Inverse folding.
């Protein structure tokens, strides 16, 4: 059954693709994904990967946020929330999307002179088709985490309406981060974005993607494709801070070739329900994927995370460390899988999840898993969930620190172990401030 | 305004078992009182109850801070009114640096931002008095500290926060003689007309360095005897048994 099919059909999909002047390969890929989407049922709790999260098809039965041509503005004409984030982040190069429309784009001239590309995906298809074709749909297709096909992935593959494209040529190092901001103000929409990042051999870059809005009912389905060619180094942060009422589904997968290094940070703080799936596939020896996550669920929030460390190559390393807290009746979920192919000898793979509960009603589920088909490997996994330490709270209180502030301090301290590994000071402060605000409100 | 910390007929239970059975004690500012007594007498319980530890149930009685009953207040409210408890077992708080924590505590105490220079001035003076290393304040609160370092850190906090009344709960336990002297130096530096301290100790050793004005002896949940400094020396010499017989405890 397909609730969103009421407004969408294969025919309308073809029409959209045609209107946008998309190449035939893309139109075909969309069509194939659409057919899969139509054929599949929505995942339910019977599906192991969705065991702790109820997915309501009504969230997707919204008006599709149609692709609209770019309408570029000056920086000071952007929504205030975005302006603030632009000012506070160190991003030199940036894109801003408002309700799916590109409204701001800036790439310093010296970077474009070096061959760096930062543009919306539609523009990149026209101007840099050679970089996009063969890269798009490489890391994330319509296939799923545990099955060969996946309804949500297929939905995005078929219908994504906008997104960012980043290309860093071989040997080029970007000092300042690239920032991509998704801002939404129109309620009742279903929007789908796809971001493609390609780092060529030995290229180096930092990329921050943020989602922000006021309180509004809306569904966003985001995909991130990260292609790290041999020796490439990418720091990548996804920061979800939608307002209450938003439903967010994020799937990201990185392909790491020989000696490529990824430092990934997934931050889940906003929305009513968010599901974040982050995967790394280590396809070359010497590849190293550090995957960090922090999340905080306050009142009426449900935040679900799924990580995959898929080792195909021998002699690669991956380390997942996700930490989060839940207050009020907030609910957090972590599931993760270390998957080692028979070819993945001499692998180092680690996975840790820790949760802090700040109230009796708060809940956390944590399911780390290993699937190991190689024998000469070092793997470990661990998880814990504990209430906030009353002795620590009392100790801080005897120094005059009020309970809420003491909790803020303890949550920040708890997350510090993860955030401390991220060398992006301003982003860390931003995250800390949001959590402080949520705690005061809880 | 009465400048005293006064405990009036305080009865406290832990899981329905009475631990404090009618404690009366008055600590004026400007004085240091010692609270002595055998193990299990209720000394540490009294300290924690005054500070507001939620694991104890106050059945009856009053805790008057400068005349105001604080028995119903939250521990942080009591602290902001000028009360300080130096813990017998200071709690480790990984991820929170001493400097950051103390600044927040100082802000909470005064209800406003404390200028950085003023804060670091206070911190600097305390570190010098305690013959400590400045590097400690960038470390996480008590994490991996030795027993002696933890106690020194308690006194550092005492000196920076400058409470009106401090309760030192067996600050001497686990300290060697040099550490003991340094800790005493910190407490003595605080002495003055606006500061009162209740020094809880099992042994008289600490009282050689922090000389008390008054000594109270607690047994079985009550103050059974109050005297001058010589009472501590007498207890040191004769133990507690004679007193037990005397008071019929």
């Amino acid at each position: 059954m397909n609730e969103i099919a009421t407004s969408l059909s294969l025919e309308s999909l073809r029409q959209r693709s045609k209107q946008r002047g998309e190449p035939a390969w893309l139109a075909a890929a969309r069509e194939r994904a659409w057919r899969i989407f139509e054929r599949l049922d929505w995942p339910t709790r019977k599906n192991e990967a969705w065991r702790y999260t109820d997915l309501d098809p009504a969230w997707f039965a919204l008006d599709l946020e149609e692709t609209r041509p770019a309408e570029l503005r000056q920086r000071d004409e952007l929504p205030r929330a975005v302006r603030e984030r632009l000012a506070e982040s160190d991003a030199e190069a940036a894109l801003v999307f408002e309700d799916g429309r590109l409204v701001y784009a800036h790439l310093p001239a010296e970077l474009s002179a070096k061959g760096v590309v930062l543009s919306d995906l539609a523009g990149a298809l026209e101007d840099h088709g050679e970089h996009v074709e063969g890269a798009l749909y490489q890391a994330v297709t319509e296939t799923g985490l545990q099955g060969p096909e996946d309804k949500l992935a297929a939905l995005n593959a078929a219908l994504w309406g906008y997104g960012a494209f980043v290309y860093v040529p071989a040997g080029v190092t970007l000092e300042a981060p690239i920032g991509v901001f998704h801002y939404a103000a129109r309620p009742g929409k279903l929007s789908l974005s796809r971001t493609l990042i390609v780092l060529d051999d030995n290229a180096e870059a930092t990329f921050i993607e943020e989602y922000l809005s006021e309180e509004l009912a809306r569904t966003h389905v985001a995909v991130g494709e990260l292609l790290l060619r041999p020796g490439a180094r990418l720091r990548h942060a996804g920061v979800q801070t939608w307002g209450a009422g938003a439903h967010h589904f994020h799937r990201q997968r990185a392909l790491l070739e020989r000696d490529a290094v990824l430092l990934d940070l997934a931050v889940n703080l906003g929305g009513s329900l968010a599901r974040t799936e982050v995967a790394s596939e280590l396809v070359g020896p010497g590849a190293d994927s550090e995957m960090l996550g922090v999340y905080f669920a306050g009142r009426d929030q449900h935040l679900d995370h799924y990580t995959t460390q898929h080792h195909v190559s021998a002699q690669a390393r991956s380390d997942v460390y996700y930490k989060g807290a839940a207050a009020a009746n907030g609910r957090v979920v972590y599931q993760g899988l270390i998957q080692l192919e028979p070819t993945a000898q001499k692998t180092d793979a680690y996975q840790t999840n820790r949760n802090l509960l700040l109230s009796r009603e708060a809940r956390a589920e944590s399911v780390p898993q290993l699937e190991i088909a190689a024998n000469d490997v070092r793997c470990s996994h661990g998880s814990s969930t504990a209430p906030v330490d009353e002795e620590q709270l009392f100790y801080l209180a005897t120094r005059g620190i009020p309970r809420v502030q003491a909790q803020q301090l303890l949550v920040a301290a708890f997350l510090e172990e993860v955030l401390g590994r991220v060398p992006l000071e301003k982003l860390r402060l931003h995250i800390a401030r949001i959590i402080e605000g949520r705690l005061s409100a809880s | 305004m009465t400048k005293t910390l006064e405990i009036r007929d305080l009865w406290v239970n832990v899981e329905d078992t009475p631990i404090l059975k009618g404690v009366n004690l008055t600590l004026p500012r400007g004085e240091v009182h010692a609270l002595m007594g055998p193990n299990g007498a209720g000394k540490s319980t009294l300290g924690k109850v005054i500070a507001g530890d939620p694991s104890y149930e106050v059945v009856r009685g009053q805790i008057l801070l400068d005349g105001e009953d604080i028995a119903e207040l939250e521990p942080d409210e009591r602290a902001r009114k000028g009360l300080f408890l130096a813990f017998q077992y200071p709690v480790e708080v990984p991820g929170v640096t001493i400097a950051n924590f103390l600044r927040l505590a100082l802000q909470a105490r005064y209800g406003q931002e404390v200028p950085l220079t003023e804060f670091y001035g206070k911190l600097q003076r305390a570190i010098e008095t305690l013959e400590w290393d400045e590097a400690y304040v960038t470390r996480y609160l008590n994490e991996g500290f030795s027993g002696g370092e933890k106690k020194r850190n308690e006194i550092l906090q005492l000196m920076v926060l400058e409470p009106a009344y401090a309760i030192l709960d067996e600050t001497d336990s686990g300290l060697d003689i040099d550490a003991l002297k340094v800790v005493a130096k910190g407490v003595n530096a605080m002495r003055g007309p606006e500061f009162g301290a209740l020094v809880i100790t099992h042994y008289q050793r600490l009282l050689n360095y922090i000389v008390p004005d008054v000594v109270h002896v607690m047994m079985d949940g009550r103050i059974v005897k109050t005297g001058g400094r010589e009472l501590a020396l007498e207890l040191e010499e004769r133990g507690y048994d004679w007193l037990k017989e005397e008071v019929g405890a």
About this structure: The mean pLDDT of chain B is 94.
